[in-house]
C-alpha cells in the first residue's frame, strides 16, 4: 500500500486508468491539417504527393509490391509473400497509410476510424473472398512508388 497524505491507497488503484466523469464536457478534437493546398485536391493527386514527400521504406515497398503482384490475395498470403508473420502485411499497410494520413485525409481522420477504413485509402477489400487488391484508380501510382523505392 502507498500512502497519500494520511490515508492508505491500494497499489492497484495507482495503476488503473482514470474513469471519465459522467458530467465531463466532450471537446471536439481539432482537425489535423496536412500540407497546404491538399484539401481541394482529388485523392489521386494527394496520394502522388504523399509518396513524393514521404518515400516508401523498404518494408512498405515490399508490402505494396506483394499487393500489386497478387491482387485478390488474402492477408496471410500477402504476409507470406513478404516473408512475414501472418499479420505482418496488414500491419505494414496500416502503418504506411497512417504515416501519410495528412495527405490521405487532409481534414483529419476522425476519432472513430477503423483499421479497415485506414486501409481503404489504398486498398479494396472483398468480404466474400477476404481478398485485398489495390484500388484500381491508384494502382499505377502505387506501382510508381514501388519502382521509385527500388
Description of the molecule:
There is one protein chain. The strands form two sheets. Strands 3-5-4 form a three-stranded antiparallel β-sheet. A hairpin with a 2-residue loop joins β1 (2-4) and β2. It has a domain at 55-106 and 113-150: Arc Repressor Mutant, subunit A, CATH 1.10.10. It is mainly alpha-helical and 150 residues long. 45% of the residues lie in helices and 11% in strands. It is built from eight helices and five strands. The model is unreliable at 21-31 (pLDDT under 50). α3 (58-69) packs across α4 and α3 (58-69) crosses α5 (88-99). The N and C termini lie far apart (57 Å). The chain has helices spanning 11-14, 43-53, 58-69, 75-82, 88-99, 101-104, 115-119, 139-149; strands spanning 2-4, 7-9, 73-74, 123-126, 131-134.
DSSP summary: helix tally? 8
Low-confidence regions: 21-31
As a percent range, the share of strand residues is 5-15%
Report the CATH C-level class of the domain at 55-106 and 113-150. Answer: Mainly Alpha
* CATH architecture classification name of the domain at 55-106 and 113-150: Orthogonal Bundle
Oligomer: single chain
- What is the total tally of β strands? 5
The global form is globular
Fraction in helix: 40-55%
Radius of gyration: 21 Å
Q: Please name the CATH topology of the domain at 55-106 and 113-150.
A: Arc Repressor Mutant, subunit A
- Strand numbers in spatial order across the main sheet: 3-5-4
**What pattern of helices and strands is seen along the backbone?**
EEHHHEHHHHEEH
Mean pLDDT: 83
User: First CA to last CA: what distance?
Assistant: 57 Å
> How would you sum up the major sheet?
3 strands, antiparallel
Q: Which structural class matches the secondary elements?
A: mainly alpha
Amino acid at each position: 500500500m502507498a500512502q497519500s497524505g494520511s490515508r492508505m491507497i491500494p497499489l492497484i488503484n495507482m495503476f488503473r486508468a482514470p474513469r471519465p466523469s459522467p458530467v465531463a464536457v466532450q471537446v471536439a478534437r481539432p482537425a489535423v491539417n496536412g500540407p497546404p493546398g491538399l484539401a481541394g485536391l482529388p485523392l489521386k493527386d494527394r496520394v502522388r504527393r504523399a509518396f513524393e514527400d514521404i518515400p516508401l521504406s523498404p518494408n512498405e515497398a515490399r508490402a505494396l509490391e506483394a499487393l500489386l503482384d497478387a491482387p485478390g490475395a488474402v492477408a496471410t498470403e500477402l504476409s507470406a509473400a513478404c516473408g512475414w508473420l501472418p499479420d505482418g502485411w496488414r500491419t505494414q499497410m496500416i502503418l504506411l497509410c497512417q504515416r501519410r494520413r495528412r495527405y490521405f485525409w487532409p481534414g483529419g481522420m476522425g476519432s472513430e476510424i477503423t483499421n479497415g477504413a485506414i486501409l481503404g485509402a489504398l486498398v479494396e477489400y472483398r468480404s466474400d473472398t477476404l481478398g485485398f487488391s489495390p484500388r484500381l484508380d491508384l494502382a499505377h501510382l502505387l506501382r510508381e512508388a514501388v519502382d521509385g523505392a527500388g
